[in-house]
Amino acid sequence: MAPAPGAAHGPLSLRDVVHRAHLGMALVAMALAGSLLLLAGLFALRAHIGRNLELTARSVAYTVEAALVFRDAEDAQQTLARMLAGPPARLRFAPCTCHFCGATGTMKRS
Question: How do residues 67-90 score in pLDDT, each as one tens digit?
Answer without folding.
Answer: 889 888 898 888 888 888 866 666
